[in-house]
Amino acid sequence: MMFEPERPFRACAFTVKYATAPWERAGAARLRRAVFCEEQGLFDGDDRDAIDDIATPIVALSMLGVAADEVVGTVRIHEEHPGLWWGSRLAVAGDYRTAGALGAALIRMAVSSAHARGCTRFLANVQRQNGPLFRRLHWNIVDEFELHGLPHLRMQADLVYYPPIFDAETGFHAHARSNHARSDATRRAA
Known about the structure:
By secondary structure, the chain is α+β, with helices and mostly antiparallel strands. Helix content is 21%, strand content 37%.
């Protein structure tokens, strides 16, 4: 009887919340660098900009049992002027993109928490390949343009679908299906 080698365990439960602890903020910065600098090559070394000085970072934390384990997703929001909010730098760790629901959960938290803080219009510049996800989440295309050498869509959230979330400090919990949610060591090979 043979056993398959064990694959790494990946959490299938997440908490999406404002990044309040230093380790959460550092994890969000690391993830952004990994996605936007190393993987996509959009920025050289670091993607930090002036918006980070005023933005509210949001993180998705993988949960192992009842403890948060690591930052596996992030987005930031900021108010440009009263009522007009922006979301940017949406990133999900590569190993967690198969979960599907993680990006959507971050988007919902971003828009709903801004809505609770007085948002009357919420915009984002979205890489074209991510447009279908945003369309499914009730966003509309406002404009098309190129940014950082890639085609982008300026999109606006339909706030009717994003009720205000007033407790973004503690966040909300989500469960996402993952093909690797448990160890494969328990599977037997004949």
